[in-house]
Amino acid sequence: MTRNKLALSLAGLLFAPIAGTAFAQSTPATTGQDQSQNTKQLQTITVTGSALPRVDTETPSPVTVISAQQIARSGYTTISDVVRSISADNSGSIPNAFTNGFAAGSSGVALRGLTVNSTLVLIDGQRAASYAVSDDGQRSFVDLNTIPLAAVERIEVLKDGASSIYGSDAIAGVVNIILRPSFQGVEGTADVGNSQHGGGFTKKATFMAGTGDLDKDRYNAYFSVQYEKDNPIFARDRDFPYNTDNLSPIGGPNPEVPGNNIGSTVGSITNPATGLLQPLGNCTAGSKLVTNDSKNPGSYCSQNLANQYNLIQPQTEQGGIYGRFTVKINDTTKAYLSASYMQSKTWGINQPEQIQNSTPVNTNSITLPVGNPSNPFNQPAPINYAFGDIPRGTNYTNHNMRLVGGVQGTMGDWNYTTTATINHTSLDTNQFGYINYAALISAINNGTYNFANPSSNSAAVRASLAPGYAKTSTSDLDSLDFNANRELWDLPGGPMGLAVGAQVRHEAQDDPTLNPNFEFEGLGNATTKGSRDVAGTYAELDMPLLESLEADVSGRFDHYSDVGNNFSPKIGLKWKPLDWVAIRGTYSKGFRAPSFAENGSSSSQGFVTITPPTSFQDLHGGNAYSSSPYSISEYTLANHNIKPEKADSFTFGVVVQPTSWLNASVDYYNIRKSNVITAPDYGSALAAYWANGGTVPGVTITPDLVDPQHPGALARPAVLTGEYINANSLKTSGVDVDIQGHWDFGSVKYISELQGTQIFKWQMILPGGIVQNYVGTQGPYNLSSGAGTPRTKGSWSNTVMYGPVTVTGTLYYTSGYQEIAEDVGVGPGSCLFLNAAGTAFMPSNCRVGSFYDFDLTGSYDINQHVAITASLMNAFDRKAPFDPANYAATNYNPTYSQAGAVGRFWNVGVKVKF
C-alpha cells in the first residue's frame, strides 16, 4: 500500500508529539520505493470514528488529536478543562462551577451545542457509565471528572456523526480518551497554585510507575495515582458585580429591598395595617438597618446574601488510581486487564433558605399569627425572613469503579480484539438547610422558632425545621465487544479493508427522588429509574479506489429492549487531487436512544428565572409583584412512548500541507436532528398565558397567589407541567478551522496551533413551523446552566523551545451574544433581565460582551530527570463580561468566562522522571 506525502506527514504530526520528537516530520519527504518502505515502518492506528487500523491518520472525517504534551503545555490539570476548551464545545456543556444544577458535582462536554447527551465519550474506544444524575433531570452523560488524566496518552475528538460505528449518542461527535497501553519507569509531579484575588488555593500531585518490556519480558505492568484539591472562591473575594445581587448602582433591581422582590430580605416584616416596614429585632448576621427608603417607607434589615454565601468556585477534591497489566501471550496475541477507581467530591453552599417560596407550597404570603411570640402586633403579620442560623447547601461524592479486560491477536488473515467492561458509579448526595414545610407551619403556629432572636433557637428546633436528606444514586454499564478486521483484495489505490464487530451491553440507572414527597421548600425534584439491554452489530469497508481517492462505508444495526431497532449508515470520501491537498466529506445518519429520565419511571422539576413582560406589568401598575425577576417551576414527566432522536449530518472539508512545516484544515458541518425529545413548549405556553391567561395543548399552568394590590388582575404563573414529547427538530451548521505549524531554527523550535469554530445557524423548529434562533443569543436558556450559544469560539497556542526551556502562551476567545432567548419567550426587542421599569439597564443594548483570556505556561529541565513547571492562567487578569441573566453564577457566565471571575491564577510545580 502506498500513501502520499500528505498522509505520511499527518501521521508524523500525530505521533511526533507523543514520541517526544515534535519535529521529526520536518525531514524531507520521500517518494516511490523509499516512501513505501517508510510507510511500512509507521505504526498503524485505529482512529476514532473508524474500526479499521490505518497508517494514514487523515480520514474522511475531521479528527482533532490532543497529545499528552499538548495537555501539559495547556496548564490544565483535569480532563474536564482540557476537553471543554475545545472550540467545538458549546451550549449545553456543564461547568464545574454550576453547583445549583441537577447534575452538580459533574462536568460534561457538548460538541456542536447539541447538549451533553449528543456527544459520546469513550475511554480507549469503550463506552463508560453515565453520571448517576441526569442533567436538568433529563440528559444522561459521562462525567469528565472521573477519568484519570495522569494516564492519558492522547485525546481524539471526532467532530462528525459516528452512530454507524458506535451507535447511540454519537450525533455531534465523539471524545475518545486514550490511556497509555504501557509504561516503564517512574514519574511524579507536584504542584501548588493560588489566585491573586483570594481563594482557590490548589494542590495536586500525580505518580506513575511501571515495569516490563512487552517484547523482551513479554509483559508490562504500571499504575498511576492522582490527587487534586481546590479550595473555594467566595463571591465576597471578588469585586462588583460578581459579589452582589444588588444592581441598583447601575440601574438594575435590588433584591435586598422587600418592595422590589418579596422573599429576599433577611429579618424584616411588613406591617399590613400601615404598610411600614419594621424589623422584628436587631439587624444582625451581616445585615444592616435601612430607613427612609424612597420605595419602602419605614425601616428594614438589608443583607447582601450573595456577598456572604455565593461561590465563584466550589471546593472540590478529585483523585484515584488506575492500573494496567498487559501480557504478550505469543508473537501475535496479547491480553490486558485494567482497573480504576476515581472519586470526585464537591462541596456546595447556598444562601440561607427564605421563608417565602413559590414551590412546592407557595409561602409568599405567609404570616405570623396573633399570639406568636415573634409577632409584636395585634394582627397577623406577613413576615420576610431568611434562616441565617441554618446553613444550607449540598455535598456530592461521586465514585467511579471500572474494570476492563481484553485480548488482541491474529487468526489467519483476521486481526481481532475482544473487550469486556464492567463500570459502576455511585453518587452520594447530602443536602442540608432546606426547610421542611410541615415543620415550618408547625413552628409558626406553635411559636417554637424565634424569628426576632434566631440565636436563641436550640439545635433541636433548627434540626426539626431542616432535618437534611441524603440519597445514593447509581449507574451501571456492562459490555462485551468483539471486533475483527482484515485486508480483502487489492484495488488501484491499495488493499480493501473490512472490519466487522458486535456488542452487547446492559445499562441501568437508579436515582432516587431529590425531594421526597415534596417536603422541602425551594427545592426542585427529580427521580430516574430504568434499565435496558442493547445488542448491536456493525461493519465497515475502506476502499482505496485510486491512489488519490478513498471511500469508506459503514453501518450499524442496534436493538434496544425498550425502544426497538435502529440502523445507522455512513459514507465518507477523501480525494487528493494534489500531493499536498485532500478534499474530504461524509454523510451519516445518527440516533440517540431516550435516556431513562425521558422514558423510565422518572420525572423532574426545575426552575428558571424570568421577568414578566411589560404588558403584564401594566395590568398590575408596574408594582414589585409584576416587575421583579422571579423563579418559575417546570415539572416534566417521563413518557414511555417516546421515540429515539434521529439525525442527518454531513461534513465537507479541505486539508492542505503545502510545506513540511504547515498543516491546515477547514471543515464545514451541517446537522439536522428530528424527533428531538423535549419538554412541552413552555415558551409558547408562557406567551399564551401572558397574553390573556390562555394555555397550549400538553401544558398545564398553575397560577401563583394573586397580587394583593390587584386581586382581580391575572396572577403570575408558578408551575408549568407536561410530558416529554418528540415535538421538535433542529438545524445547526458551521465551520471548524485547524492550523498547525512548526519551525526549527536550530537551537530554537517554535510551534503554533490555531483552532476555531464559527456557528452559522442553530435553530429549533417547533410544531406548527415556529422557528427559534439561538446562535449569537443566550438561548437555549431552558437548558443546563442557560449558557447560550456564542457564534465564535477559538484558541491560539504558541510554543517556544530553547534548550531546557519551554514556554507556551495560549489565547482563548469566546464571542459575545444577545441577552435574549426565544425558548422562554424572550426574543428580539426584549431582554432576559430587566430593571424595575421593565427595560434593559446594562448592557444598554441587551448584549453580553465577548471574553478572551491568555494563559502562560512554562517548564525548565534542570536535568534529564527533574523539571520545574509554572503557569500563569488569565495572565492579563481579564474580567468576565457582565451577564445578570445567567442563573449558574452571580452576574457572569461560568460556561465561557469562569477564568474571568477567578482572575489571575498562578501555579508552580516540579516533575521528576526516572
TrEMBL record:
This is TonB-dependent receptor. The lineage of its organism: Bacteria, Pseudomonadati, Pseudomonadota, Gammaproteobacteria, Lysobacterales. InterPro entries: Beta-barrel_TonB, Beta-barrel_TonB_sf, Plug_dom, Plug_dom_sf, TonB-dep_rcpt-like, TonB_rcpt_CS. It is a multi-pass membrane protein. It is found in: Cell outer membrane. Belongs to the TonB-dependent receptor family. Residues 58-174 form the TonB-dependent receptor plug domain. It holds the Pfam family TonB_dep_Rec_b-barrel.
